[in-house]
Amino acid sequence: MLKVSIYRYNPETDAEPYMQDLEVDTGGKDLMVLDVLELIKAKDTTVVYRRSCREGVCGSDGMNINGKNGLACIIPLSEALSGSSKLVLRPLPGLPVIRDLIVDMSMFYKQYEKVKPYLINNTPAPAIERLQSPEEREKLDGLYECILCACCSTACPSFWWNPERFIGPSGLLQAYRFLADSRDTATEQRLAELDDPFSVFRCHGIQNCVNVCPKGLNPTKAIGHIRNMLLTSAT
Amino acid sequence: MVTAVTNLGRSGLSDWLTQRVTAVIMLAYIIFIASVVVGGVEYTEWKALFSQTWVRVFSLATFLSIGMHGWIGLWAVSTDYLVPHVLRIKAGEAVASQANLLRWVFQAASAIVLFTYVVWGIQILWG
Asked: What are the chain A neighbours of B4 within 8 Å (beta carbons)?
């Protein structure tokens, strides 16, 4: 039997959140954390969490698993427990909890929206498509793969303290994804929007984001590139 | 673009660059002073050292660096922790409602301490 401690909070019935201890029969298998949640839900339908693709593509089931943010569907118990005898599940830290493991991601999306995550190009569109050389396309590798699961931004203390003003690792990775795109012509405006003491510069490079990203991306490196672009354009 | 009026420069980039340049100046000064002190220094030698203009200018550059570096750092600390939603968790609603006041008091106190330090430093060097 696997011991599980799960964060419970229903604002309609609970005065405050609490941790509920449960035991789950995993049949001795090295299940994914999401499978354990499904077993729990089969017995207690009031436990709620987000999930969809169950294969690390949709980014719905980001949560705090034994103290580290990650996607429940692609983290096996052996990795989640790493020596501990209890599985501890909490919602992503720093965002308001709606219920149990579900958080309100509005603030996260607002920061994403701020970086204008789309191509801006006012030159006349060619007949078929805007072409890129293989080298230009290569610059987007390690950036476009982000699935917006919010594991990184909610692992970042700077984002916890300033969620309205610091864009956060996820948003900044996307900001660089468009700054680095050879087809985008709004580089100057994009950089001008970022040159304040909060949007980019609240990053102190502690790399919590790199440590938790389920896709193995490196937002700290992208932030470094943005900083270099700002420095180059201003000196 | 987030507006901020109490940070040192007008942009995040200038604060970031200032913090790094001042850190290098302070490190160079620490190495310089340590190299003098480690070998053992008499009062007369120390006085002779500081009677040289370049040592005074180097010291002044370091004092100014401490002032700027300190302000950028303390300003970041105050805007990280002395904000309503952080104080609400750490100290309760009553304190959180006074977050802006607390932050301004902290920033004003920091500014006074750093300014006094720089002026005092100048007085010692050329007094």
From this structure: 196-198
Q: Which of B3, B80, B103 to mutate to test the interface with A (most CBs of A within 10 A)?
A: B80
Inter-residue long-range contacts of A228-232, CB under 8 Å, 24+ positions, other chains counted:
A229/A179, A229/A187, A229/A191, A230/A191, A230/A194, A230/A195, A230/A200, A230/B13, A231/B13, A231/B17
The pLDDT score that the predictor gives to residue B40 is: 86
Q: What is the pLDDT of residues A53-103, one digit of tens each?
A: 999 999 999 999 999 999 999 999 999 998 899 999 999 999 999 999 999
Q: Which two tokens stand for residue A2?
A: 């696997």
Same domain assignment for residues A137 and A85: no
Residue B6 touches partner A, C-beta closer than 8 Å: no
Which parts of chain A sit beneath pLDDT 70?
Answer: none
The domain of A167 spans: 106-234
In angstroms, the separation between the Cα of residue B91 and the nearest Cα of chain A is 15
Beta pairing class for A86-90 and A18-24: unpaired
| A116 & A226 share domain | yes
Could you report the predicted ipTM of this complex, rounded to two decimals?
A: 0.86
